[in-house]
Amino acid sequence: MKRNIRLFLVLCMCSLAFTSCGKQEEEVAEDVVDTTEQVALDDVEVEDYTVLKYNELEVLAYEGDTDAMVMLGRMLEYGADDVKQSFTEAISWYQMASDSGNIDGTCALGYFYLTGTGVEKDLEKASELFDTAIEGGSVNAYVGKARTLLMERDISEDSEVADVIDDSKKDSTESDEEDSISEEDKAIYDLFYKAQIAGDVDGAYYLGYAYENGIGTPVDYKKAYDYYSRASKNNSTDLADQYSKNKANVAIGLLYIKGNGVEQDSAQAIEYFEAASEAGYAKGSYYLGQIYENGVGVDKDYEKAMEYYLLAADSDYAPALNQIGYMYYNGYGVDVDFASAVYYQKLAALQGYAIAQVNLGFLYENGYGVERNLETALSYYEMAADSGYEGAMEAVVRVRAQINEEM
């Protein structure tokens, strides 16, 4: 939408006089000519809202410009220069835009309800919002709808980096795979495909994700690489598109680490992780930390690993927070500090990160960095068990037995 702005430029000419007595000052003041002139420039069209500053967008938004409302939401959602990330404020602007009929605002709201960011997760609400946006012509809403269907079948976003691949898919024939694909998965694939074919960057990323994980299609790492690359090479200045580009860079880096669809190459992986990290994407920094902590294609460097983990932790990325706690517990690149280990594990556990919950349970069970407390340990183990984390239930049984023995 092109927006006409009425700009008022106030041009002031000031005369300064230095005198030695009040009367002279008075006389000079009387002689000063008021040269204030107000000039109106009409019909200035905004072709690209991304070049406007936050306060300029606010002016337009309060005048009812829904595109400006969406852009404000984007800046607050992802964070931008001199704009602190605030999901609550982002949701507010998206809601205003949506209420005024802006489909981009409606689509953006859908993602918040999909992920439960800043609001209570509500997949039914998210689905309704995406349906409305699709009816209004939003291309990216196809991706949101597909992700909602994925979430409904209990495939979380964490599976993007979980390295969990069904080996049976690799051994079966392509025809067997096609026969085993559910209609629901085919519908999900079709939605990703519609978004990608229409030029949506996030659509390209998720179509690659579908090929990598065999969602609605046989696993095909080469095609996954191809679609991830399409997202990675986009030059859009839209913050959402840049975020998709970062996701794609990390995904490609992981393909190079595993040698899936490409020749295994840790140097190439590092380049892609660095590109994401330099753009402020926490997962890129986290995986660089993993590279240097474990010495994947490079010499082990715990101090460098910690630097990258801390960089990711600036975005409150739970896996990085957990890993920092692990480094403090073991004294990797830092002095052993159980109190710091507890602190960072808590930050990760509060986000529902099951590994950190198990680690905290262990620390409380054994009294490392905290006073030994079996009840608290049990609580953390139960949290992890409730999320289905493997091995957590064994810890629950063990600690319950200890509590009974000490009663």
Fraction in helix: 55-70%
- Give the quaternary arrangement of the chains: single chain
Please trace the helix and strand order, writing H or E for each element: EHEHHHHHHHHHHHHHHHHHHHH
- N-to-C span: 70 Å
Globular, elongated, flat, extended or rod-shaped: what is the shape?
A: globular
Structural category: mainly alpha
Task: Tell me the number of helical segments per DSSP (H or I, 4 or more residues long).
Answer: 21
Brief write-up:
This protein is mainly alpha-helical and 407 residues long.
Describe it:
- Among the domains are: 1-98, no CATH class; 277-315, no CATH class; 317-407, Serine Threonine Protein Phosphatase 5, Tetratricopeptide repeat, CATH 1.25.40.10.
- With 407 residues, it is mainly alpha-helical.
- The chain has a two-stranded antiparallel sheet with strand order 1-2.
- The chain is globular, with a radius of gyration of 27 Å.
- The chain has 21 helices and two strands.
- The chain has helices spanning 22-31, 54-62, 66-78, 87-99, 103-115, 123-135, 140-152, 167-171, 174-180, 183-197, 201-213, 221-232, 239-258, 266-278, 282-294, 302-313, 318-330, 338-349, 354-366, 374-386, 392-406; strands at residues 4-11, 37-45.
Task: Please render the helix and strand layout as text.
Layout: E1 4-11, H1 22-31, E2 37-45, H2 54-62, H3 66-78, H4 87-99, H5 103-115, H6 123-135, H7 140-152, H8 167-171, H9 174-180, H10 183-197, H11 201-213, H12 221-232, H13 239-258, H14 266-278, H15 282-294, H16 302-313, H17 318-330, H18 338-349, H19 354-366, H20 374-386, H21 392-406
Helix pairs in contact: 2-3, 3-4, 4-5, 5-6, 5-7, 6-7, 7-10, 10-11, 11-12, 11-13, 12-13, 13-14, 14-15, 15-16, 16-17, 17-18, 18-19, 19-20, 20-21
